[in-house]
Specification:
Layout lengths: L41 E3 L3 E3 L5 E3 L1 E3 L3 E3 L5 E3 L2 E2 L9 E6 L7 E4 L2 E2 L9 E6 L2 E4 L2 E2 L4 E5 L11 E4 L2 E2 L2 E3 L13 E5 L6 E3 L2 E4 L1 E6 L2 E3 L2 E3 L18 E5 L9 E4 L2 E4 L2 E5 L12 E4 L2 E2 L10 E3 L5 E2 L9 E2 L8 E3 L1
Parallel strand pairs: 1-4, 2-5, 3-6, 4-7, 5-8, 6-9, 7-10, 8-11, 9-12, 10-13, 11-14, 12-15, 13-16, 14-18, 15-19, 16-20, 17-21, 18-24, 19-25, 20-26, 24-27, 25-28, 26-29, 27-30, 28-31, 29-32, 30-33
Antiparallel strand pairs: 22-23
């Protein structure tokens, strides 16, 4: 397993009333993520391109997006709104630039102003620690890949955030069957850590495209028309893992709360894994029973190497009764 070159204090609780929080000991919600209630924010208008190392954005209401292009940038207790001007995939907080190193994003509320934008991911890129953020009404919550060197460490930790619901669009510029929403999509990079998050894999009723079906409009319409399922309310997945931008491995996914999704965790891409690599360690995640493919909380690639305990103290389990989830290969 890759040891990432940074120190993470897992007991620091953050600002105001969060000082006593111990991440992993509670399920994140609106009170424990995002800009703390009662925080006074100063407006910062337009898109922000950060090129000066060690810059901190603190308690700002940002009417555009944030592009981090320097080392040691912090975005703390900020509201990030974006615009409707972007015409290609980007992050409301974008960490894809090669100069982005050791970005810290904490206690932020990250959601596009209505009506939103099909192209937005909440936080996108590499070399960031995201902690206690509230992300919703975006297309994806988090995106992870190493743009400059796909076969190297992502240096990404995603912990104690609350993600979802997500906005669904049809048609999507990249998908003829509608947008493929994931709370977290891991597309490349080694050693990503995903822990202690609430991943709410359901579609938003506030944003997205409304399509008439059966005399009503429903932004959660399933255009494929699967029998008995005219209103597919789930996203694609809580965590989607594939090799779009590089071969991701040594990923740790543990102790998350996962709701809905077509699958809860979809790590079944047939390009995952080469000899000598463990693709992911998947342990002690909790699931509801709301997956669109009923009974498929975890699906993984049979030909790749994973550590996914089927029983014992490290099993992945259902929230309602603690029973071990059924594992499926695909």
């Amino acid at each position: 397993m890759v040891t990432q070159a940074r120190t993470i204090d897992v007991t620091v609780g953050g600002p105001q009333g969060r000082a006593s929080l111990v991440m992993g000991s509670y399920e994140p919600d609106d009170q424990t993520t995002g800009v703390p209630a009662g925080t006074s924010l100063t407006t910062l208008s337009g898109n922000q391109v950060i090129t000066t190392p060690n810059t901190t954005l603190f308690r700002r209401d940002i009417t555009g997006k944030v592009s981090i292009r320097a080392a040691n940038v912090s975005v703390l207790e900020c509201r990030v709104r974006g615009t409707n001007a972007d015409t290609s995939s980007t992050g409301l907080i974008d960490c894809t630039n090669s100069a982005c190193v050791n970005a810290i994003i904490e206690d932020c509320t990250i959601t596009p102003d209505l009506p939103g934008n099909v192209h937005y991911t909440g936080i996108l890129g590499h070399d960031y620690i995201a902690r206690r953020n509230r992300i919703y009404n975006t297309c994806d919550g988090f995106g992870v890949f190493e743009t400059g060197a796909p076969g190297t460490d992502s240096l990404v930790t995603i912990e104690a955030n609350s993600v979802g619901p997500l906005g669904w669009w049809y048609p999507d510029p990249d998908h003829s069957d509608g947008s493929h929403n994931d709370c977290i999509q891991l597309q490349g990079g080694i050693g990503t850590i995903v822990r202690w998050n609430r991943l709410y894999g359901y579609q938003s009723m506030e944003v997205g495209d409304a399509i008439t079906y059966g005399g009503r409009e429903d932004p959660r319409f399933d255009p494929i028309g699967n029998a008995g399922n005219p209103t597919q309310t789930q996203t694609m997945s809580g965590v989607m893992m594939n090799a779009n931008v590089g071969d991701p491995y040594d990923v740790e996914i543990y102790e998350n709360w996962v709701y809905g999704g077509e699958f809860g965790l979809n790590i079944s891409d047939d390009n995952l894994g080469v000899p000598g690599q463990t693709v992911a360690y998947v342990k002690r995640n909790r699931f509801d029973r709301g997956q669109w493919f009923v009974g498929f909380p975890i699906i993984y690639e049979a030909s790749a190497t994973f550590v996914i305990p089927a029983s014992g103290v490290d099993k992945n389990y259902y929230m309602d009764n603690g029973a071990a989830v059924t594992l499926h290969t695909g």
